[in-house]
Amino acid sequence: MSAIIVVDALWGDSGKGKTTAHLARKHNADLTVRAGVGTNAGASVTLEDGTLVKARQLPTGWLNPGTRVAVGSGVLVDPQVLAGEIERFGLAGRAFVDGRCAVITPEHIRAEQADAHLAGLIGSTCTGNGHARADFILRRAQQARDLPELAPYVMDVAREVNTVAAAEGKTAIVEGSQGTMLSLAFSPDYPYTTSDNCTAAAAMDDVGLNWRLATDVVMVVKAMPTRVGQGPLPHEMTEAEAVARGIAEYGVVTGRARRKAESIDFALLEYAAMLNGPTQIALTFCDHYEPGMRGARDSGAITPRVRDLIRQVEEAAGAPVTFLDTGHRLGDVIDLAPVPA
């Protein structure tokens, strides 16, 4: 009986997709469910053979062959993106959407692309999510159950995630999106936020998970945080420096360069931990912070500099670092937590 919540501590793009895929394989999860706003955020995972997998709608737990994937009712659905990912990843019969999900239409996307406030001042991805959520709140949106083309995938995801999480010997994983410090109601940087909250509690709400079934909150902390779009980024380096050091990053959805920080703001990390209540920390992009860690898969390879970073993160977050991400590939990890029985 287990439900694991995966949540980003700061501004997103931290490797939640890779973390979720690793956990799905480690626990042989029965179900992973996508929480978050919608298709305005993406995840990418590089497989062992070098294949790059990019997703915007479905969680990455399907990389474990026995894991089903679903989209929670609080998440906005773009029918074209959903159908494209089901086809591209061969997930017919394994992928589902809650019938109560609000639908992003082409009109929503066009409206955002023409919205100077969102496109210019905020730096939105302009994928229709904000306008679709506004229609949902005003009770005039379509829902997934209204579209015949989505009928084969519709299920009561809230019932399913609770059933799985409550079952003996089964694990459900809830994958959040974006980051805590982009939360609409909790970020200090409004209006430079997304259109909903991105905390562990928000993720449980997005999928309808009974809080009593949550056994772990894995908070993902990026060793060198990044931010896309406008808003403050403490300890920010220049794009030229990131390129020169070979650690430049680009967004999954927009392809824009991610603004990159030299180090973690530990006061913000402490605040994120207060909001999320993590039981474990996944420390990601360790190879950007310490190039000597690139591709390491054994705890003996952890350098003194990274061990010191682990100490600082644990002190600020009040939870143990149990997972280190050390490179592009799915297997480039050091798992410091015991293997489940």
What does this structure look like?
With 341 residues, the chain is α/β, with parallel strands linked by helices. It has a single domain (2-335), classed as Adenylosuccinate Synthetase, subunit A, domain 1 (Adenylosuccinate Synthetase, Chain A, domain 1), CATH 3.40.440.10. The chain contains eleven helices and 14 strands. It has helices at residues 16-27, 79-88, 106-113, 116-122, 129-137, 157-166, 200-207, 239-244, 266-276, 286-289, 304-317, and strands at residues 2-8, 31-34, 43-46, 52-55, 68-71, 95-98, 154-155, 171-175, 216-222, 226-227, 259-260, 280-284, 321-325, 333-335. It has a ten-stranded mixed sheet, with helices on both faces. It has a two-stranded antiparallel ribbon with strand order 3-4. It is globular and about 55 Å long. The model has no long low-confidence stretch (mean pLDDT 95).
